[in-house]
Amino acid sequence: MGSASQGGSARVTRRSAAPGDPRRTPLTYRLVVALVAVVMLACFAAAVAAIALVDGEPTLREATRRAVASGGAVATEVSLPGPTTQGPALAPETPLPVRVDLPSIGVSSELTDLRLQPDGSLEAPEDFAVAGWWVEGTRPGDPGPAVVVGHVDSFRGPAVFFKLGLLQQGSQVLIQRKDGSSVTFQVTEVGQYPKDQFPTQLVYGSTPEPTLRLITCGGVFNRETHSYQDNVVVFARQVSPPATQAGAAR
Questions:
Q1: Is pLDDT of 53 > 70?
Q2: For the whole prediction, is pTM greater than 0.90?
Q3: What is the pLDDT of residues 116-168, one digit of tens each?
């Protein structure tokens, strides 16, 4: 080991960094500052995206189409088969239905109008959270089958008739009407049918007393076709007020 010249002791001079000198700021501190900046930038971007979503949120139908196009597990909007024959003439004095209530499964929904499409099929409700009724068919309370349809789910989760298959024989279905009156139906049967074997006659066939059919999708979900393989059909008959025409109903 060598020694200092002239026999003196070795001295080490340390220079203090001047204010603002980068060497004065520890590396860890600079990394923390950079990380905070990145986080703030990400939060700002998320806020801008949220505002854009609120201002221009697509309709549920459009959002579902996008989800299907991107490969999401969402059922496509499959219309139901329509009646094979024209139903009886409507009674215009019967009040229009405006709401359906299924107390046993906690469902309450307004009713939108559904019509037959050019190909003869019955359109599906546009809103997944709202059920619809076949406005060209029987009005609830008139002799014959009134038809109410609702989606089972969407890419956002359960839809209005998600629990429809849980209805049991004896469950009540309440239809509120435009004039403030209501009619009560009682479930007589719950069936599940492959879509290629849809029970058209059982659903639309004439009945001597007021009846109701509630329909949604069911069974296994086919991810290739983005569609459920079955339909759930609930059959019910009017019990209150008493039907004016007696007769057996499915």
A1: no
A2: no
A3: 999 999 999 999 999 999 999 999 999 999 999 999 998 889 999 999 999 99
Mean pLDDT of 66-84: 53
Structure tokens at 133: 């009724």
Tell me whether residue 196 is exposed, middle or buried, using C-beta atoms within 10 angstroms of its C-beta: 0 to 12, 13 to 18, 19 or more. exposed
Cα atoms in the Cβ-side hemisphere of radius 13 Å centred on 182: 10
What pLDDT score does 82 carry? 78
**Are the beta carbons of 90 and 139 closer than 8 angstroms?**
yes
